[in-house]
Amino acid sequence: MEHVAFQLAEATAEQLGGLAILGCEVLSDADMARAVELGFPVDTIDELRRTGVTDREIGNLIIKPRTLSHRRAKRSRLTVEESDRAARVARIVALARKTFANRDKADRWLHKELSALEGRRPMDLIRTHAGARIVEDLLTGIAWGAVA
User: Fold this and answer.
1) What are the domain boundaries of the chain?
2) What is the pLDDT of residue 145?
3) CB 35 within 8 A of CB 19
């Protein structure tokens, strides 16, 4: 199980731009925690956009557009809290894509209202750590064939 966590940490880092953008190698959850504590470069938001996270989702889940503009203008990093939220989004996207082994299928699932989530969309639920854990558990169940 530990090996899977290491792979997920790497996949999460790739969603954020990898070594080229983060400026550090992320091979484990501990590495990701250190990167979050340093604050991600603003360019990680652009990487999330490139991987399919919408501007609306970025604004609702990670950082408001006006705040993002200020960070860019000042060439400052994301705060620890913003970086943590970005890592949460990237982790769920990476896990969904790994689970479904198909980017389009994973993206459709992340944006679909699901009865298992009481009619909510996974992308809406990941606003909080608790919600992200529910989505992660659901994806794990799908991966193991426990959930249809």
Assistant:
1) 2-143
2) 79
3) no
